[in-house]
Write a structure and sequence with these properties.
The protein has 14 helices and 16 strands. An eight-stranded parallel beta sheet has the order 6-7-8-9-10-11-12-13. Strands 3-2-1-4 form a four-stranded mixed beta sheet, with no helix packed on it. The protein is an alpha/beta fold. Helix 8 links the parallel strand 11 and strand 12. The longest helix has 18 residues. It folds into two domains: 92 residues, Roll (Urease, subunit C, domain 1); 290 residues, TIM Barrel. 33% of the residues lie in helices and 21% in strands. The radius of gyration is 22 Å and the shape is globular.
Length: 414
């Protein structure tokens, strides 16, 4: 890799998932052409060339469902391992005394991990908190968004517990949130709470992103959400939708038909739901996923995110869209191409963002990963990556391995 420039006008040496070697030209943050390797005009300034020999060139990934305010809090909280409600209790107890600076520090570190791995757009749910200062999470993520705006686009969704008054929800929109959402299925009166959140979103004409039916066997609110928003023009998404994966085939297909008709985007969160769901099942533990295969087959707007990373809701996670894609393959039975689309083009579409990737006219948000093909990239998730946001190189990682006892003169490894 020879480039030292921030804004390359030519990428060469990379190959696409179809195996073709290409030259990619960039101008003004947009891909202007994708040509056979060696045919693009070479700029006189060598620093404008980004040499990606041995790398697979893809769209940058997007994270459609994050919780930046919670990220990295597991070590401080040391919560009991358990289900969703246990996680909520431990988080809210910690959050009552959590400072704004604590949130900024953890969120900043999390965003940089995402960017390093190839994510250039993040939608983060941010809790509205109990007490005298319920908006400190919103302010903290706003601070991080401002600090890192050259590296990544961050969208903020106010996550509204049922005991937070409507006045605070609307104040969060004034404080910088781009939309609202809630986990209405956990409220004492789920449909009443769903209607309250819908009314706020409609009144303020903002994005609506609901945590929806995150359980294996409780209430189903997805149908009501689809019915109430079918005539809306604003962006509506439903995260989790775990219950959709456990209802009867007849009910599932009816709900998916309603989702497709309404245009709701469904966001699966495999790692967190695989962790949180099924603790009460000692044998044949359910997968804890939404109906991934059925949604994709029905043509639903579909995306997937990592959700929680190293917090009470999930102690694991590598902040990597390729990890989420891998889980969609092994637990959701998608192909590698379908899975990667869910964390890249599908995620951007559900978030309302312009398309990106190595296609003429697309935004030059790109991920180059050392791999020979897409399945290899998802399976191995090489750390060797170059990330571009708006045509600018924003992260570069190179790894090095040694095998001291191996005769490297006779064995070549990569």
């Amino acid at each position: 890799m020879t480039n030292s420039g921030e804004f390359p006008s030519l990428i060469r040496g990379a190959h696409l998932p179809d195996g073709s070697a290409v030259d990619v030209t960039i101008s003004g943050g947009t891909v202007t052409s994708v040509l056979p390797s060696g045919t693009a005009r070479v700029p006189s300034d060598a620093s404008a060339i980004l040499d990606l020999d041995g790398h697979l060139l893809l769209s940058a990934t997007a994270e459609p469902h994050a919780h930046l305010d919670k990220a990295g809090s597991w070590d401080a909280i040391r919560p009991p391992m358990g289900d969703l409600r246990a996680a909520i209790v431990s988080w809210r107890d910690y959050a009552d005394a959590m400072t704004e600076q604590d949130i900024v520090t953890r969120a900043r570190a999390q965003v940089l991990r995402n960017v390093r791995n190839g994510t250039t757009a993040i939608r983060s749910h941010v809790d509205l908190l109990r007490g005298d200062d319920p908006l400190r999470g919103i302010r903290a993520i706003n601070t991080v968004r401002d600090e890192l705006h050259d590296l990544v686009d961050i969208e903020i969704i106010s996550l509204v517990p049922a005991d937070i008054p409507t006045s605070v929800v609307e104040a969060s929109l004034d404080a910088g949130a781009d939309g609202i959402g809630a986990a209405a299925h956990l409220a004492p009166e789920p449909f009443v709470e769903l209607d309250r959140i819908l009314a706020i979103a409609e009144r303020n004409d903002c994005v609506l992103d609901m945590h929806t039916d995150e359980s294996l066997d409780e209430v189903v609110t997805l149908g009501r959400l689809a019915e109430r928003t079918r005539a809306w023009s604003r962006n509506v998404t439903a995260g989790h939708c775990v219950r959709l994966g456990t209802v009867s085939v007849e009910e599932r297909d009816g709900l998916i038909e309603a989702v497709v008709a309404s245009g709701i985007g469904v966001i699966a969160n495999p790692i967190t739901n695989l962790y949180l769901q099924g603790w009460e099942h000692e044998v044949a533990t359910p997968r804890g996923l939404t109906a991934v295969r059925a949604l994709v087959d029905a043509g639903a707007r579909f995306a997937a995110g990592a959700d929680n990373v190293r917090d009470p809701f999930n102690p694991m996670g590598r902040s990597d869209g390729l990890e989420t894609a891998m889980l969609l393959v092994v637990a959701g039975h998608l192909t590698a191409e379908e899975a990667f689309h869910a964390v890249s083009g599908g995620a951007r579409e559900v978030m309302g963002l312009a398309s990106s990737g190595p296609t003429a006219g697309a935004a030059a948000d790109l991920l180059a990963v050392r791999a020979s093909h897409l399945t290899h990239a998802i399976a191995e998730a090489s750390a060797d990556r170059v990330v571009l946001h708006g045509g600018r190189v924003v992260a570069r990682t190179q790894s090095h391995s040694e095998f001291p006892t191996l005769d490297t003169a006779s064995v070549r490894t990569r």
